[in-house]
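Researcher: If convenient, please comment on what follows.
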Amino acid sequence: GSSWNNCDFETNLCKAFPELDLQPAWIRRNGQSGMGPPYSDHNGNESAYFLSLSSEMQFSSAALRTSVFLPTDEEHLCQITFHYWVSQMSGTFMVGLQKHSEDTVTNVWQVSGELRNQWNVNTITINSTEKYEVIFLGMVETQRQGETVAIDDITFSEGC
């Protein structure tokens, strides 16, 4: 199930993302939804849920923002592991860091296309001397059939 440290999107409750229901461009679905790929979650389970960009929206991008995390320290860096799916042609997926004193989002990690439509996994480490939020940003340049960005199983270490 979903808890503070792990968001698997099997239920709507995911404490790290307080505004999940207010993000209309992300849709919580599974591989049986009839909405094109991905046709399963990262474990190959067709009935398990994940988030993907909603192809019905005109949006070409969608942000998923965490709640505010406290500053990290040397002993407890914040490590975030997540599974992601990026469409081959025009998908882009970014992870950004927004510190409390800054208006801008600093790009921490990004990947685009050329991934042959498969689930991949990545871990990022965040080091911040002040309060911060983490932003997951999915983008597709075109609304061609099957073009999407998806995310699943986001895990936060105790340093977050």
